[in-house]
Amino acid sequence: MQAPNLVYRKFQAARDAAQGFKGQWQQFSKRFIDCLEQTQKAGQVKADFLQQCKADIAALHSSLEEALQALNARLDSPLLTLATTGTTSSGKSTLVNFLCGAELVPVAVSEMSAGTVTLEDGDVPSLTIEATPGALWECGTWENISAATIYDKLEEAMVQYLDTKDTNPSLAPPKANITYPIQFLRQHRHQLGLPFGTRVQLLDLPGFAYVGDERNAQIIREQCRQALCLVTYNSAETDAKKTEQLLEEVVIQVKNLGGSPARMLFVLNRIDVFQEDRDPQKSEQRFVSKTVGQIKAKLKEKLPEHEEAIETLKVLKLSARAALYSQLIQQSVGEERAKICERAEEQHKALIGEDLLEELPRNPAKWTDHDCQRVAESLWANSYGQELFKELVEQIQQHFAELVIPQIVVDFNKGAANKVLEWCTQEVDAICNSIEEKYRQECERLEETGVQLSEKLQQAGKNLKVPFEEMKELITSHSPITNHSIVLLESIMFEFIGNKEQTECEPEVDDNDDDEWSDKIRQWRDKIQQWHSQVDDEWRDKIKLDDEILPLIYTWRREVFISIEQLLEQVYLSIQGGKVDFSADVNLKQLPPPDQKYVQELEETLREFIEFIKAIGYNCADVAKQGMTIRQETQGDFKIIYFQSIIKNIQKRLSEVIEVLVKSVLAREQGPIYDVVSLLFRNHLEYLQESAQRIAPELGIQFPMSTLSQVQKELNWDISLEKAFSPEAKEATWTAIETRKTRPWWLLRLIEIETKVTVQKSGLELEVPSMEKLCEDWIAACKERVEEYLVPAYLDWFIEQTDLLTEQANEYQQAVLERYRSKLSECRQALSIDYETRKQFWEPMRTSVAELEQERPSWDKIKQSENAGVTSIDLNAETSSV
């Protein structure tokens, strides 16, 4: 008999783990009551205490049973999400249609995606277009409709949105939900081995600029973190500059999706573009090798924390449209099939094959069933559709359980298992310590324990935030702060947080740093070094983060600076070339529609500036590289005033664009920041929990890690930019050469001749630096504002998060302490056990508590379980019903 499917086995292992904990608890509770009844027979327990314990156990039984039912329900009906996103014109929507086996999502030569489309597997086709604010398209629900109707209604909504969004930036994009039998799932359900009730949904993402407000974007990000993701790449793009843009788009899409690239499939779509080459196979191989290398290199550069996963990245070739045609030909008949065959023959002759086409009638309407089948098989074989399906099955088998089960297990423990363990631990220890002598000692020790726990927690919290507090104090005491100084401070701080080997070398300082600032940096380093030498070694080792993960706390600055530099580069190139063109700036494309208006206003202002340059007789390329001199002679000449007005307007528009651009980039970078802070907090909590268990094992403290380690307050990025260039004219005198026309007397004034004369002129003069210099100044000013406002705000946010964590952890452990103190008091009043009873009945119960603790479910135990799952008979019963 075959071994049970891996996915099914992991789900069954989770059930078994929870059921095993319940069984162990039942044994423990039975033994506990037996011991209590034996103690009562000895006349050492009051009857009402026994009844209270029975009531507590019954309540815990009920709570555990409820949590077990919830766990089984979620394991029986988990949600598998496949999220699709991609670069410009990469055929993402065609890929979605291919997975569904039907033309549902609109495709077009121009970008058609707008709004989020969610497709869920179901027997009865239906479409719901939600009534989003200001919707101009038809909204509602339509059931039992054809794929063509779904396509038409979606297309109508998307076209109306795309045609209107520029004039109405606040218009929310359409949001659609489709129910349809997803062909990929139905063909491979048996191989996937999914639980019978598994729900499957495809999340078709248009890009985070078109998902509506930030709340909606955050919901989608959370969904994507629990999803297997397919990222499509446009293989048909060969222009070097546009290819670089596509690589940048890939990074942006991966960051938006969040999580590790290990659960992402990269799809080189439209790969059949090389079929027209002289040697298609060689061209294809060369392209794939080059592109895979470029994608990996770009991802490693931007996501160094995932270098290992990137190295084993799954990159597949695909012609999604050809694969879709293959499916549609086999599903359709008559005139509909003839139309599909005609499209396939027109668009994918090379994939069908010349030899096969020569054997067929020239008119696809005359193809027989056998002819159509041969064409479908040829398209399927050459489109790489089967390879993608095969890899997707393997990805689901590898990652689905890990995406779903851990949180289910955490919720089970939080809902019942942790409460059960705390009650058992505290009850047994309270009974053991209820003897008169033990009771007095325990009460005294509890006071000390409370102080110890609180001090340990406060000290650890202080350790966590000291470097950030010291850095905040330092940078706010000195202005202006240079980027070099910030980088230096960060490298020193993270040298200690990363727990690297310490060096005695002097920190390098910049030539622009004054002596006072350099001395402050050295003093600050000494403070951090002193802090590092005083902290608990165990804590320092516990919170240590890998070199790849640690920089995520501060690399957002690099991404912000890069985005500003790229924008100003486009400004410079536009003026140099005399034509405004921002198409190469990938970050601007990611701005949501309401913010695109700022880009359009900046473009219009730059066009006005270019026209002005040309009007006063300058060459745009010269102005960009060398600058220009504007002179104004008379009161009626307004060139300088006009220029000042334009440059002021450019700065205003530029500031507006940079503000929304910075916020957009930071919104994308928040995910990695939250992830690393949560990991740091989780490590910190694990240290606190281990410390608490050593200080007071009788309390059974189990911090709710998944809750406490999460970011409690959103980062609020707010930046405003000041003008970087205020041109002022001055009085000046200059020499000019003028051409004058005269009629000399000696020519009898009959002939007019031109002569050049040198004259002195005076008036207002304005020296305008080169646009290269201006852009450099603007970049420097923007960076200074980022350092001045965003870095302190970020440090404040981290310190606040640390304080909240410490406060909540302290509240939790004090509540546990109070519950134990209350139990101890109850046991003292209700029990009068002697030393022999304690030794015979209650001391062994501590071993039972430890055994129960060992049975608490965890994802690590489930993964390591070699005999996880059910017998092959059980599996066959399950799959046969599927």
From TrEMBL:
<keyword id="KW-0175">Coiled coil</keyword>
<keyword id="KW-0547">Nucleotide-binding</keyword>
<keyword id="KW-0342">GTP-binding</keyword>
<dbReference type="InterPro" id="IPR027417">
    <property type="entry name" value="P-loop_NTPase"/>
</dbReference>
<dbReference type="InterPro" id="IPR027094">
    <property type="entry name" value="Mitofusin_fam"/>
</dbReference>
<keyword id="KW-0378">Hydrolase</keyword>
<dbReference type="Pfam" id="PF00350">
    <property type="entry name" value="Dynamin_N"/>
</dbReference>
<dbReference type="GO" id="GO:0005525">
    <property type="term" value="F:GTP binding"/>
</dbReference>
<dbReference type="GO" id="GO:0003924">
    <property type="term" value="F:GTPase activity"/>
</dbReference>
<keyword id="KW-0472">Membrane</keyword>
<dbReference type="InterPro" id="IPR045063">
    <property type="entry name" value="Dynamin_N"/>
</dbReference>
<feature type="coiled-coil region">
    <location>
        <begin position="436"/>
        <end position="463"/>
    </location>
</feature>
<dbReference type="GO" id="GO:0016020">
    <property type="term" value="C:membrane"/>
</dbReference>
<feature type="domain" description="Dynamin N-terminal">
    <location>
        <begin position="83"/>
        <end position="247"/>
    </location>
</feature>
<dbReference type="GO" id="GO:0008053">
    <property type="term" value="P:mitochondrial fusion"/>
</dbReference>
<protein>
    <submittedName>
        <fullName>Tlr0361 protein</fullName>
    </submittedName>
</protein>
